[in-house]
Amino acid sequence: MLKSSMEAASYKRHIYTTLSAVLLLATASSASAATGLSDTDYCQDGAQDQTPSYTYQSDLQQTMNCMLTQLEPYQQTDKTPHQRYSAYKAQAWLTYAIHQGSINSYTSDGAYAAHAAEFLLQSLKNDTVDQIDLFQDLPDTSALMRPDLWATLGALKDSNGIASAPREMAFSEIALIWAATNQCERGWRESSPHFRMADRWLEQAREAYVNANDCSGQLI
After folding, report:
1. How many domains does the chain have?
2. 101, 127, 149, 196: least surrounded by Cβ within 10 Å?
C-alpha cells in the first residue's frame, strides 16, 4: 500500500513538472509574440548598464534601449548609405515601440515596430541589409496618407538620396507610417503632429540632397 502511494505521488510530481514546463514554454512564446522580439539578449554585452526593473514593460524598454545602443556603430559615416539608412530606420521603429510602452498601451502596433527594428538590426549584424528593398509595404494597421510626402520620399530613394540624408529619410518614413496609424485608430488630432514631423524631415532631406548634388533644387 505504501509503495503504491509513493508511486502515485511520484507520478503526480512528474505530471506537474511536465505541465509546468509546457506552461513556461507557452508563456515565453506568448510574450515573444506580444512584444514582437525574439529571445535574444541584447544587453548581454553590457550595452546598457542598468538594473533591470521589476516590471515587465520596463524590462522590455530596457531591451529596446540596448538595441538602440547596438545600432549606433552602423550610423557612423564610415558605413554605407544603405547601412546608415537601415540603422536610422530601426532607431525610428524602436522609438515608436518604446512610445507605445511608455503610454501603457503596448499593442500590435508596438510589436510590429519592435519586430521591424529587430529584423533590421539582425540584418546589419549579418551584413545582409543591402538585400533589403528600400521600398517596403505598409503595415496593415497603417495606410497611404499624404501621397505628396510619399512621392517626395520615393523620388529621394530613386535618386540615391540616402547617400546624403539617410537619417532624415528614415525618420520621415516611419513618421508617415506612425501618423497614418494614429489617424486610422484615433483621428486627425493624433496624426497631425507626426505628419508635420515627417514634412520637416523630408524638407531637410531634400535640402541635403540638393546641396550634395548641386542640382538647383530639382530631384532627378
Report:
1. 1
2. 127
Residue that is written with C-alpha cell 513556461 in the block? 24
Domain of residue 75 covers: 3-213
pTM score, whole prediction: 0.74
Residues 38-76: tens digit of each pLDDT = 667 788 755 444 444 444 446 777 888 899 999 999 999
Q: Is residue 220 part of a domain?
A: no
> Do 194 and 182 form a contact (C-beta atoms < 8 A)?
yes
Q: Hey, what's the cell of 160?
A: 540615391
d(Cα 13, Cα 135) in Å, to the nearest integer? 55
* Residue 218 within any structural domain of the chain: no
Neighbours of 174 (CB within 10 A): 25
What is the distance between the alpha carbons of residues 214 and 220, in angstroms, rounded to a whole number? 11
The secondary structure of 81-130 as a DSSP string is: HHHHHHHHHHHHHHHHHHHHHHTT---HHHHHHHHHHHHHHHHHHTT-GG
- Do the domain assignments include residue 10? yes
* Torsion sign (Cα): 93, 97, 102, 105: positive
The C-alpha atoms of residue 111 and residue 108 are separated, in whole angstroms, by 5
Asked whether residue 181 is domain-assigned, the answer is yes
Rounded CA gap, 94 and 193, in Å?
A: 18
